[in-house]
Each structure stands twice: as C-alpha cells, then as structure tokens.
C-alpha cells in the first residue's frame, strides 16, 4: 500500500510550513511547545489568542463536511489535513485549546444540528472565538455512559431546559465558553433512552461551577463541573434522541488527530532514546524495548493512514485507542527506567493558590500522566467490548 502524498499535498505542505513560520513570532513564539495532554495549564492566554490567529488564516474546520469557505474555513482533503497536522506538530505549534469545538462539536452540528444552530455556532468556532468542552462522564457513569444521572427539565415559562447534575474529567472546562452536555430529559427513563444533547453556556454564575481536579502528575487540566439549574439554550437533534447524537460525536474523536498525536509521541521517544544513549549503559533488555517502541510507533502510523478513510468502520477507532494507549503507557515506564534513580526525585510544592505542580521534570510527568492513557477516552475493556460485539459479532456481556 502506498502511504505517500501527491504533488498538491507537497505544495500545501510548503504553504503550511511558510504560514506557520511567519506567524509563530512575538507572543506566539513563546507558546511554541506549550499545551497538550498533561500540559494544558501552559500558556493558556497565548494559546487562546493563537486560536484566533488560526481562524484568521482559515486553518480551523478543514475537515468539516461543509462548502469551502462557508464558515470562513478552507476545505482540505484527508491527505491535506494530514499534511497540515504534520507540519503543525513538526514545528511544535501551541497545543490547541479549540480542538473540542472544531473536531467534535462542529461535525456533530453539521450532521444533526439545525440550520440556525449551524449559523450560530460554526462561524465562531471557525474564527477561534468560542471554545467548547464536553459534558459526558459522571462520577457514576464514565465508561458506562448510558448510566448518566444529570437531569434537565424544561421550564414551562420560557421553554428552556434547566440542567442539574455533575460532570467529571471535563478537559478545558475553565477555558471553555460552552459545554455540550448529555442529560436525561425524560424522568424515569433508563440507559440510553430519554437522553438529550444540550448546549450550555459556561458563564452562568451560581448555576455552573468548575472545580479543578489535581492529578498525581501535578497538573489540573481535568475538572469536575456542577450544574445547578443551568440554562440550556439549545437541543441538538430530537429531544430524547441524544444517545444517537452522542455516539456520532464519539466516532469523531479519533482520526487525523491520531496522526498529530503520534508526532508528539515520536518526539517523546526521541528524548528517551537520547537519555538512554547519554546514560552510557548497554542493557540489552532496555535496548530491545526501545527498538520495539520505535517499530510499534511506525506500525501505528501506517494503521492510522490505512483506516483514515474507513467511514463507518466501528472497530477502527477502538483498535487505534488500544494501540496508542498501551504504547504511550509503556513509553512512560521506559522513560523513568532509563533515568534510573534520578527519576525518583521528589516533586516540588503545591498550594491551592497555585494549582499546578512545578517540580516534576518531563520524564516524571510522562510516566505519571500515561497511567491514565488506557482509561480516559474509553478504557481498554470498553474498546475490547466494542471490537468483540460490533466487529466480531460476539454475544454481548450480560448485565
């Protein structure tokens, strides 16, 4: 199979590289390499400004199923999107704070939203002006999403929903302007029935509260969000049909972004390889594991390219998640093993006024953060269930 790119792709590559080099200057130069999983606390304001810079350049919404320029975005082919993502990662451009709105909310609105909702929300996402977070998981409903208990009741006075409940592990909730919330809108309903996909403004003092969750890595990019009668201005899709909308959105979570992620993985692996070379050791077992990590990363890239255009393949996202989750976790273990005793050095201090740990070095943070890679975004057990039931046709597990 040919994994190469055509002449148009290479022309786009040169254009993307030139645009990034021209714009990653001034305050944005200081944000190079900042942000991303495990480091979302870094350079937040500069990265938010950078979203608007990307919007002015038309680089947001390249993969939307909408006419070129309909919302101020340029439409790129799948390979074109890969090219842009590769150049973005290669130049270590700032970690995106708008990716949830661009890659999850917007395609879902295009598929299920009304024309009015599309006109209201998509241009603001394309301009990098409004940021989104995802209100799915709850303390008692993580991997088992159908067990959510957050409820929304329609107010007869104004016809709007009032949302009450708690969401957890909400990435970028402190930065987001909006949250798409899966809530139970039919009292007494169970499992996936009676759920609705609601759009909730985050700036509702007294009705929406965000509390950071300090992780063992020291950072606090995940949050718990409490809704106390929060107003939901919009319902996407049919009332009570939120499960269908939610499943559509989850299918979008992995795609071109997987390739971007792998470029970051490659940089981390390169650092660990450099530490191993600098250590002067010649442990054949560690060397074999490092070679295996390199080979598996190449295989993941080929698999991601192969499945990129596999629309409707229920197993492809789960296979990808199983591959990268375990790979990244093993890399974290290798990182501290290569560091040796130095990796056991204690962290710095922490206080409620400064909710981020500053004492961890790169390898320590990599090790601690990757403990969660096989859990968040759908645990390994859930991914295996999906493959078994939806791809292999095995009987469902009894509940």
Summarize this entry quickly.
This protein is of the alpha+beta class and about 400 residues long. Helices cover about 45% and strands about 10% of the residues.
Describe the protein:
- This protein is of the alpha+beta class.
- The protein has three domains: 7-97, no CATH class; 132-249, Butyryl-CoA Dehydrogenase, subunit A, domain 2 (Beta Barrel); 254-391, Butyryl-CoA Dehydrogenase, subunit A, domain 3 (Up-down Bundle).
- It is 43% helix and 12% strand.
- The protein contains eleven helices and seven strands.
- It has helices spanning 7-23, 44-56, 78-90, 99-112, 115-126, 242-251, 256-279, 284-307, 316-339, 362-369, 380-391, and strands at 132-135, 151-154, 161-167, 178-184, 195-201, 208-212, 223-236.
- Strands 1, 2, 3, 4, 5, 6 and 7 form a seven-stranded mixed beta sheet that branches.
- A hairpin with a 6-residue loop joins strand 2 and strand 3.
- Helix 1 packs parallel to helix 3 and helix 3 runs parallel beside helix 7 (256-279).
- The longest helix is centred in the last third of the chain and has 24 residues, at 256-279.
- It is globular and about 70 Å long.
- Pfam families: Acyl-CoA_dh_1 (PF00441), Acyl-CoA_dh_M (PF02770), Acyl-CoA_dh_N (PF02771).
- This is Acyl-CoA dehydrogenase.
- Residues 240-392 form the Acyl-CoA dehydrogenase/oxidase C-terminal domain.
Keywords:
single chain, 399 residues, alpha+beta, Butyryl-CoA Dehydrogenase, subunit A, domain 2, Butyryl-CoA Dehydrogenase, subunit A, domain 3, 3 domains, seven-stranded mixed β-sheet, globular, AcylCoA_DH/ox_N_sf, oxidoreductase, Acyl-CoA dehydrogenase, FAD, flavoprotein
């Amino acid at each position: 199979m040919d994994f190469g790119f055509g002449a148009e792709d290479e022309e786009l590559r040169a254009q993307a590289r030139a645009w990034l080099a021209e714009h990653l200057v001034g305050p944005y130069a200081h944000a190079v390499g900042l942000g991303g999983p495990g480091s979302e606390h870094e350079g937040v304001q500069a990265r938010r400004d950078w979203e608007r810079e990307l919007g002015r350049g038309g680089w947001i919404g390249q993969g939307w199923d909408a006419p070129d320029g309909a919302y101020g975005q340029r439409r790129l082919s799948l390979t074109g999107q890969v090219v842009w993502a590769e150049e973005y990662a290669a130049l270590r451009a700032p970690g995106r704070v708008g990716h949830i709105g661009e890659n999850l909310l917007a395609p879902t609105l295009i598929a299920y939203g009304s024309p009015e909702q599309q006109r209201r929300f998509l241009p603001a996402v394309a301009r990098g002006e409004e940021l989104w977070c995802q209100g799915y998981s709850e303390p008692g409903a993580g991997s088992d999403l159908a067990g959510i208990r957050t409820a929304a009741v329609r107010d007869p006075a104004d016809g709007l929903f009032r949302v009450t409940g708690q969401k957890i592990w909400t990435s970028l909730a402190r930065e987001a302007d909006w949250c798409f919330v899966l809530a139970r809108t039919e009292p007494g309903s169970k499992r996936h029935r009676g759920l609705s996909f609601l759009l909730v403004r985050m700036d509702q003092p007294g009705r929406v509260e965000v509390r950071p969750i300090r992780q063992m890595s020291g950072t606090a990019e995940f949050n718990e969000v409490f809704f106390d009668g929060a107003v939901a201005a919009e319902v996407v899709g049919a009332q009570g049909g939120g499960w269908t909308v939610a499943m559509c959105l989850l299918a979008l979570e992995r795609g071109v972004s997987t390739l971007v992620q792998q470029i970051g993985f490659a940089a981390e692996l390169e650092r660990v390889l450099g530490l191993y070379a600098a250590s002067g050791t010649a442990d054949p077992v560690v060397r074999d594991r490092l070679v295996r990590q390199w080979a598996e990363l190449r295989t993941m890239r080929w698999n991601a390219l192969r499945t990129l255009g596999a629309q409707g393949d229920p197993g492809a996202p789960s296979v990808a998640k199983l591959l990268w989750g375990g790979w990244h976790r093993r890399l974290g273990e290798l990182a501290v093993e290569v560091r040796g005793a130095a990796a056991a050095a204690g962290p710095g201090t922490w206080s409620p006024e400064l909710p981020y740990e500053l004492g961890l070095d790169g390898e320590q943070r990599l090790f601690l953060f990757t403990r969660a890679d096989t859990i968040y975004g759908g645990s390994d057990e859930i991914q295996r269930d999906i493959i078994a039931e939806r791809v292999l046709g095995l009987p469902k597990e009894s509940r």
